[in-house]
Amino acid sequence: MSVPPTPTPPSRIARPTPFTPGGKRPISLAPVSASASSSAPPSRSTTPSLIPPSAKKYKAALTTEARPRTLSKPASPTKRDSSRPKTPTTPRRGAQSPAQIIISEMDVSRIDPEEALVDFETVEAGDVSLDLDDITQDYGQEDKVLVSIRIRPTDELHAWDTNGKDLKLNPAFGKAPQEFHFDEILTGSENKPVYNAVARSHVCAAMDGFNAVVFAYGQTASGKTFTLSGDEAQPGIIPRAMKDVFGYIKRTPTREYLLRCSYLEIYNETINDLLAPPHMSAAQPVQIHGNGANILLSPLREEVVTCLKGVHEVLARGEGNRRTASTDWNERSSRSHSVFRVVIESRERGTDGRQTPSGRTTPGFRPPTPGGARLQAIGGRSVQTSVLSLIDLAGSEKATSDKERTREGKYINTSLLTLGSVIGTLAENSSRGRADHVPFRNSKLTRMLQPSLSGDARISVICTMNPSKDAIAESTSTLLFAQRIKRVQLHAQKKEVVDTEALLQRYRKEIEELRRRLAEREAESPARSRRLSAREQLEESKAMRDLNARIRQLTKLILTSQTVDENKGDESRPGSPSKVDFDMTPYQLQQELLAARREIETQATQILSLEAALLARPVLPPDAPEGEKDRLLVEQAKTIRELEIVVQGYEDNLGAPLRKVQEDVEREWAGKVAAEAHGRAEKEAWADELVRQLERERKVRTKLEEERQALAAFVKKFDALGLAGPPLVSTRLNPPLPTPGGAAAVFAERQRSRLQAVVDAELGTVREFDSPMRVPVGVGEPSLLEEQWDALEDLSFDMEKIRASPMKGKENLPTWG
Ligand SMILES: Nc1ncnc2c1ncn2[C@@H]1O[C@H](COP(=O)(O)OP(=O)(O)OP(=O)(O)O)[C@@H](O)[C@H]1O
């Protein structure tokens, strides 16, 4: 179904500007002041204002004077702030204006937060949104971005068909890439239904302690500012949100709130504080500090607001600074993003109203800590902190136009491109379970939004589009962006700071009480244990264990809290709401305590049983009556049975593993013993062999000795017969040393040779070689053989025989073997 051209009241469309593909908005002739021509189409700025007259418009219209300047001299990012042009039609309110001076006194660094608390009693009736009752605590799909499309009215033919929450290009205008489906598709000029559908639940989530972001994305002149800020007749999301904030406070009598607003714009990668005097903002642009989830903006002015009027003043001041800075606003509006932030801190109200039960007061003039916590968790009351960010992004058509991307590439706003790729990567990571690097740092916008886009916020995106056929490419690009961001996964958590001092005090008191109870029980324990049955004693022992465990656990918690407190360091140090996350809530502490107790109980049960059984061992007084003895015996038997069960439990749990260990050890030692035995057997065999060898050696030696003696006797006798050859070189005093493995054989050979020589000589066949046997007597060393002469008588006798029978003698020569 094609959306018919919406008949819009002329007063709502201050600039009924058909979209121009070139991104150049037709010069609006809409009057911006009372002096403007009455014949011009009525502007949204001409309608009665809810805000101070000095801030009738949330956005300056493009003036006829400004337009030529825009075309001839585009604003420079570096020069812009220091030379914000002042035109007669868009006078910048001076820093000295009384209104501004009054508002500046609401600068959070100059007031005591305790003095600026808002609660249901102090909220002004007129500041409250009356229809807040409509709202439920249902914030939609908490882990998904709420994505809505707002189609601005136009007199032209619509190129897009809508059907409920579906949207597709009318086939008459081309081939649609696909059919789109979103959470909401909104049309018309009424801002209230838009606010209710896309922002209200997120505002309430912020009041409830979650970070929340609502941003408008879309091509130039598609209605982002109209949606966010609106006009007097159709207040947009920001003023409606603030009304709901006060309405929420009115409806929550149990809590008190501190509200701080800041307003900034990102223009060509420079962040300007719109609440600071322009010269200061230009001299000191806002810087982003920190990493990841801990982002801090500084210096950034924050104004405490206690009523809607204060909010309007803050908004008007910010808009005033934008307007003054944006005489060339058409050019700038396509390149700058504005962010209105409200830091919401809340705490349970004390029982005695505004007074703090602990009597402590929050220091009044602390150094400014933009974004950080200001309210103190006092009297045991924790503080919840959240940030509501309402963002009007720059026009996106130049960055996303398919046909004109190349030609207009140099105008592409880097931050929007980066936003697109950041969203793309986040969507991919979410849907494919990946963890690809997300280029948050590539632009100020994405870096500033990093904590929220990373999931730590409830996010609602309203994509505005011009349904005209001239804007099909831009609209398609916007719809694709909207579709991608729908896939980003969120996981926002409430941020709470507990009053650690009060908590510690509570822990200490509890520990004291527990110790007292423990001491009492211990004191009466011997007497009691005699009275109690085994089971009661078991319970008593368990109770005491519990007390001890609880004391240990609380002591641990105190130590943990103190460590956390020390880590916090300087109180004045700025910290973002998410930074205080490490403070455990009482609920978390309770959970941890419970878990720890359960663990300790499980571990101690077995030991407890044994100890209790031991304690329960009945003492039998000698003078106890028989009946009493019997009873004790019965109890003892029962205890033994219980002990057996416990032991059986140990056996069941530990028996098998222990047996296994024992078997392993035994197996290991059996192996070692076998190896030892084997080694020993080998050594014994070796020793036996040695003994045998020694025995053989001894026999050989004996035989040798005998041979030697026989030979000596023979030689002596031979010498006596005058047949002496040369004396033997070796004597007893100088015997030939045995050569291992062959000395004996060599010696034997020598002896044999000698003997042979003797025999030969005896038989007349003496060889002519120079035998030692032929050494003349008296020339060589004294012969050992000579010394042994007497003992060799028998052999010489034998020699006689040999001489008598030469053949026989030869046969009888000694042999060695
Ligand atoms: N839904 C709407 N109903 C009535 N008027 C609208 C609607 N949307 C936009 N307009 C009008 O269209 C004009 C352009 O809108 P607006 O300034 O909000 O666009 P924008 O997206 O913020 O543009 P830019 O990106 O240039 O800032 C304004 O005069 C506004 O009043």
TrEMBL record:
ATP binds at residues 218-225. The keyword Transmembrane helix does not apply. Coiled coil: none annotated. One of its GO terms (cellular component) is microtubule. SMART domains: KISc. Gene3D superfamilies: Kinesin motor domain. The keyword ATP-binding applies. It comes from the Eukaryota. Residues 28-49 have a biased composition (Low complexity). GO terms for biological process: microtubule-based movement; mitotic cell cycle. Pfam families: Kinesin. Residues 144-488 form the Kinesin motor domain. Residues 1-10 have a biased composition (Pro residues). GO terms for molecular function: ATP binding; microtubule binding; microtubule motor activity. Residues 1-99, 346-370, 518-539, 562-582 are annotated as: Disordered. Keywords: ATP-binding, Coiled coil, Microtubule, Motor protein, Nucleotide-binding. Belongs to the TRAFAC class myosin-kinesin ATPase superfamily. Kinesin family. This is Kinesin-like protein.
